[in-house]
Write a structure and sequence with these properties.
- The complex is a heterodimer of chains A (449) and B (434).
- With 449 residues, chain A is of the alpha/beta class.
- Among the domains of chain A are: 29-114, Fumarate Reductase Iron-sulfur Protein, Chain B, domain 2, CATH 1.10.1060.10; 317-432.
- Helix content of chain A is 48%, strand content 6%.
- Chain A contains 23 helices and eight strands.
- In chain A, helix 22 (406-416) links the parallel strand 7 and strand 8.
- In chain A, helix 4 (58-68) packs across helix 5 (99-114), helix 7 packs across helix 8 and helix 12 (210-222) packs across helix 23.
- The longest helix of chain A has 20 residues, at 245-264.
- Chain A is globular and about 65 Å long.
- Chain B has two domains: 3-97 and 262-433, 3-Layer(bba) Sandwich (FAD/NAD(P)-binding domain); 113-253, 3-Layer(aba) Sandwich (Rossmann fold), CATH 3.40.50.
- In chain B, strand 16 (302-311) and strand 17 form a beta hairpin.
- In chain B, helix 1 (14-24) packs parallel to helix 9, helix 4 crosses helix 11 (414-431) and helix 7 (206-214) packs across helix 8.
- Classes of the chains: A alpha/beta (449), B alpha/beta (434).
- At the A-B interface, helix 2, helix 3, helix 15, helix 16 and helix 17 of A face helix 6, helix 9, strand 14, strand 16 and strand 17 of B.
- Chain A: This is sn-glycerol-3-phosphate dehydrogenase subunit C.
- Chain A: Residues 1-29 are annotated as: Disordered.
């Protein structure tokens, strides 16, 4: 049911609702619980329940647990921490029950009430959730950081001290962050008051894969856009998943303020990471009520989707080619892209470019789900969920991977050893790379309709 | 810029997938947009054509002669019996070895988890060894942690229904599952992956452990029925493996929701969509539409020019030449009701219903419920009609449970109606492309 159809109470007669619940002022999740008719479709979509009997599934974690909580003597069940926040249950539910919102709320309450602030878990989770705070340290001395985090001794310590899965390799820091590069370059090279975007690059493409962010810049400038790179904090995704709603709230406050200011300057917001766009579009309005939260959500887009709607991207891609740098890909659509209706987009677009093909590896979850698969206690579950994707990647007619989500790409690489690329890098190569016709720049500034 | 296609199908269930597959055969560009997971997950996975007449006569041994007698406005009457046959043949081509029953017009009788017998036209290969017309004795095996299938009770019901074989039921523990609330996908996954499990006799693999659990209960039966949780992606291999180890035929008994045979059918359809080059967009609703120029003169029906797809707040325009509405019925939310009226939420097509809410139902729960037939009236081209019997739109067709005039639950006609009308709507949409 769309917002447009939500009944509004505009009847003129005096209607005094009866206060049934004490928590007026908080988000009312009761309609969510009431709309659930127990069809269990969400349970069939849950990747964790499929590999772990100990996880009671999204139907319990959301509506049923909410009801249990009406009884004062019930705490949130600790199993809520086994939910990976993939949000597949949201797009499963035929009744629009806001499952992930209920899970996020329950998880925050569990961490608040039941997790000791002195426990190893709490600080480990806080550290993982606040990667954005630690990354600058690594980015200051990237080579040292990469050397130290790559040491087996470091990984052993990480597991023993903090409970971070020793099997995983910490992502490498780039020797120059995207923002450093952007500043050095002198910022935007195209000025255009009619076509502006504000780039929400997120943490990963700033500190770890600036090549993705640079590809976005090249593609958008090719289409004649003026790019703004506003001040920004983490999108909050890893914080929701760890029940750290206060940390997320602080980050969201900064993001909403800065992005709303860019929107006032005539920009639309685009993100290259599917979890970032998901967070700004769906989780912010569900969990926060800062001024302009809705405006930011409504004006945020996936970076590729935006060009599809606002430019004639398909015509532009027809007849382009990429050279030797890319071969065929095994493509995995992240859960958070799937939930935004972006599941078919990459395969459709790459089909237009000569010399490269994307083979979809199916609709399974990669299993890493951001920080989830980094925790020693979840590593096995994470790999069990990922097994189907690894199998399909092996079967696909390709030896390289493609996805839009940073942690999915880590999992893909971890499970197959393939090198993983972001879709924007392929589009940049086709539109403005060696294989592209460099005269095709659409710098007219006219907005295609 | 709208995202452009020739045919846009709204809805991702059996009717929508069939419409998209039928359209793409004609070499046009087809997109399927679906919002939530379809009601295939509630469905048995059986393909019924007609089990009972609207008057309640049945079970019908052959559905086809009865099609000619259906009342005006019934979806089958709209498309004609020939289209039903064509659609079944089309389905057979898509399903290949995954489904059986194409060798005859007659209905097959499939035992259900409640111990009833359901007449159906096509059934999954997993169910083939379990037909009620087969006179071989059967052992039904249920699991203590899966109370939806009470095997001894189902066996007693079957015998009470007069099946031509002896049925016996036992309840065992499913090796590798301790908890009462494990999901059906967990059972399937254990067997798919043949995971290591702990048994009383030590560690073993899931399939071996299950076969060893059942073996002592066999008393000469040549077939064994399990609840339909025997694998998902590798269901055929799981079944063959169990049959091999036990030396008997193994079959699945269709279950209530959530249903693995329904999930497997969904996977089969979506694989076919992908192979055929249908563009698929899931997880987002169509929330609005715009009409363009009218058809013949200004008096003709309006043409849908574009629809708006809501992507987490962003409005993405999609345009096509022809549209198919396959959003489901009351359960699939393609037909909605509030205290005032019954409506179709995407294009606001006319849904005939009594003005007084108390006339929408009768007190007898299993009686002839008016609401069960609520849905869109259509012409013989499956184009929705307004209150004056005029076309709602020139380029919209409707298929599946969104159509009125039939009570699929009582008639056992749900899958057949989705297939036949999906097939016709998809083909006509493609033919109508300019």
């Amino acid at each position: 049911m769309s917002d447009a159809e939500r009944p509004t109470d505009d009847s003129g007669d005096e209607f005094e609702p009866i206060e049934v619940f004490p928590e007026a002022g908080e988000t009312d999740l009761r309609p969510g619980a009431d709309d659930c008719y127990k069809c269990s479709t969400c349970d069939t979509e849950c990747p964790v329940a499929e590999v772990d009997d100990e996880f009671p599934g999204p139907k319990f974690q959301g509506p049923e647990q909410w009801r249990l909580k009406r009884q004062d003597d019930h705490d949130i069940d600790e199993s809520v921490m086994k939910c990976s926040n993939c949000m597949r249950c949201d797009s499963a539910c035929p009744s629009d029950v806001p499952l992930s919102q209920m899970h996020n709320t329950a998880r925050a309450e569990y961490v608040e009430e039941n997790v000791s602030k002195f426990s190893r878990e709490y600080w480990r989770n806080r550290m993982l959730a606040n990667y954005r705070r630690l990354a600058p340290l690594g980015a200051m001395f990237p080579r040292t950081a990469n050397f130290v985090t790559g040491l087996s001794a470091t990984r052993w310590l990480g597991e023993k001290l903090l409970g971070i899965a020793g099997e995983r390799e910490l992502p490498e820091f780039a020797t120059e962050t995207f923002r450093e590069w952007w500043t050095k370059r002198g910022g935007a090279r195209v000025e255009n008051s009619d076509k502006r975007i504000a780039y929400f690059h997120g943490c990963y493409s700033n500190y770890n894969t600036p090549e993705v962010a640079k590809a976005l810049v090249r593609v958008y400038e090719h289409f004649g856009y003026e790019i703004m790179v506003p001040e920004q904090d983490c999108s909050g995704t890893p914080m929701f998943a760890n029940g750290m709603l206060e940390d997320a709230r602080r980050a969201a406050e900064t993001n909403v303020r800065e992005l709303a200011a860019a929107i006032d300057d005539g920009a639309d917001v685009v993100a290259s990471c599917s979890s970032c766009s998901m967070s700004l579009r769906q989780e912010y309005p569900e969990l926060f009520d800062f001024e302009d939260t809705e405006a930011v959500a409504e004006n945020t887009w996936d970076a590729v989707e935006y060009l599809r709607v606002h430019e004639d991207l398909e015509t532009e891609l027809e007849g382009t080619a990429v050279g030797e740098e890319f071969d065929d890909f095994a493509y995995h659509a992240p859960c958070h892209a799937r939930n935004q209706g972006l599941d078919g987009q990459t395969v459709e677009l790459l089909g237009l470019i000569d010399g490269v093909e994307a083979h979809d590896v199916g609709d399974s979850c990669s299993g890493i789900s951001g920080t989830y698969g980094w925790k020693a206690e979840n590593y096995e579950t994470s790999m069990a969920i990922g097994a189907e994707m690894f199998d399909h990647m092996d079967d696909a007619d390709a030896t390289a991977g493609l996805t839009e989500c940073p942690t999915c790409s880590m999992q893909m690489e971890h499970g197959t050893g393939y090198e993983i690329t972001h879709t924007l890098e392929v589009l940049a190569a086709a539109l403005v790379g060696d294989g592209a016709d460099a005269t095709g720049a659409n710098a007219t500034g006219a907005r295609a309709e | 810029m709208a995202i452009e296609d020739d045919v846009l199908v709204v809805g991702g269930g059996l009717a929508g997938a069939t419409a998209a597959l039928a359209a793409v055969e004609r070499d046009v560009r087809v997109r399927l947009v679906s919002h939530k997971q379809s009601t295939l997950r509630h469905a048995s996975g059986l393909i019924d054509v007609l089990g009972y007449t609207p008057a309640g006569e049945g079970p019908l041994s052959d559905p086809f002669p009865a099609l000619a007698d259906l009342p005006e406005g019934h979806p089958y009457e709209r498309v004609g019996a020939e289209a039903v046959r064509d659609a079944l043949a089309f389905f057979d081509g898509i399903a290949g070895d995954a489904y059986a029953g194409a060798h005859t017009d007659a209905n097959a009788l499939v035992p259900t988890h409640g111990g009833t017998v359901k007449p159906t036209a096509r059934y999954p290969a997993a169910t083939a060894a379990g037909l009620a017309s087969d006179d071989r004795d059967a052992l039904l095996v249920g699991f203590g942690t899966l109370p939806d299938f009470e095997a001894p009770l189902a066996a007693a019901h079957l015998e009470g229904a007069g099946v031509p074989f002896a049925a016996r039921g036992v309840t065992v523990r499913f090796p590798g599952i301790e908890r009462d609330d494990a999901k059906v996908t967990r059972y399937a996954h254990l067997l798919d992956r043949d995971e290591r499990v702990e048994t009383a006799a030590g560690e073993s693999t899931a399939r071996t452990a299950l076969a060893e659990t059942v073996r002592p209960h066999l008393e000469g039966e040549s077939r064994v029925g399990f609840p339909a949780v025997l694998g998902d992606d590798r269901a055929d291999a799981v079944r063959a493996d169990l049959a091999d180890r036990l030396g008997v035929d193994v079959f699945e008994v269709p279950m209530g929701p959530p249903s693995l045979p329904g999930l497997r059918l969904e996977d089969l359809l979506f694989d076919a969509l992908s192979d055929a080059g249908v563009r698929v967009t899931t997880g987002v609703p169509v929330v609005d539409y715009e009409t363009g120029a009218h058809g013949a003169g200004s008096s003709g029906p309006a043409r849908i020019d574009r629809v708006t797809v809501d992507r987490n707040g962003s409005e993405v325009p999609h345009s096509a030449d022809q549209y198919v509405l396959a959003t489901g019925g009351l359960v699939g939310k393609g037909v909605e009701s509030d205290r005032e009226r019954v409506s179709e939420p995407v294009f606001d097509c006319h849904v005939p219903h009594p003005a007084d809410r108390y006339d929408w139902f009768v007190d007898d729960v299993f009686g002839d419920q008016p609401y069960a037939r609520f849905g869109l009236p259509v012409d013989r081209d499956l184009r929705p009609l307004d209150a004056d019997d005029a076309l709602e739109f020139a380029n919209l067709r409707a298929a599946g449970a969104v159509l009125g005039g039939h009570d699929f639950a009582a008639e056992k006609s749900g899958s057949g109606v989705s297939l036949a009308t999906g097939y016709v709507a998809g083909r006509r949409a493609a033919e109508g492309c300019r």
